Amino acid sequence: MANKILLWIFQILALIYSLVEIVYDYTNFKYLKDFWNWIDLLAHIFTMWYLCSDANDTKCPEIVLAFSNVFIWFRLIGFLRVYRQFRYYIFMIIQILWGI
After folding, report:
1. pLDDT the model gives residue 2
2. DSSP sequence for 53-76
3. What confidence score (pLDDT) does residue 15 get?
4. Quick check: pTM over 0.90?
5. What is the pLDDT along the chain (100 residues), one digit of tens a residue?
6. What is the rounded CA–CA span in Å between residue 53 and residue 56?
7. C-beta of residue 76 within 8 angstroms of C-beta of residue 43
8. Nearest CA to 65 among 73, 57, 77?
9. 14 with 44: CB under 8 angstroms?
10. Is 15 in contact with 48 (CB distance < 8 Å)?
11. Where are the alpha helices (DSSP H) in 1-100?
12. What's the CA gap between 50 and 65, in Å, rounded?
């Protein structure tokens, strides 16, 4: 139960932050043009969908949580590109996935 409350708090804070960024940059839509921001928004949407269905005691497919997890891992891979040791490894993974 405490895990779900923490997840709710973090999701609400992350959504507020994303909405502030979107509203702050509404003139040239720079926020929405970035690929990584869309990944973040999709992860938030899928996680909120799962949390809302769980709060209403409705059956939500586990695939929703799986998609959220995949998008969060994509974001983690994006963060790891900053470190020199991981940069070439991440580039190789991206090239392999792009080739598939």
Report:
1. 77
2. HHHTT----HHHHHHHHHHHHHHH
3. 85
4. no
5. 778 888 888 888 888 888 888 888 777 778 888 888 888 888 888 888 888 887 777 777 788 888 888 888 888 877 777 778 888 887 888 788 788 7
6. 5
7. no
8. 73
9. yes
10. yes
11. 2-24, 30-33, 35-55, 62-80, 84-99
12. 6
For residue 34, what is the DSSP state? -
Burial environment of residue 43 by CB neighbours within 10 A (0 to 12, 13 to 18, 19 or more): buried
User: What are the structure tokens assigned to 44, written together?
Assistant: 């938030």
What is the spatial distance between Cα 49 and Cα 47, in angstroms, rounded to a whole number? 5
Q: Can you say how many angstroms the Cα of residue 53 is from the centroid of all Cα atoms in its chain?
A: 18
Placement of tokens 């993974």 in the chain? 93
Residue 80: exposure state from Cβ atoms within 10 A (0-12, 13-18, ≥19): middle
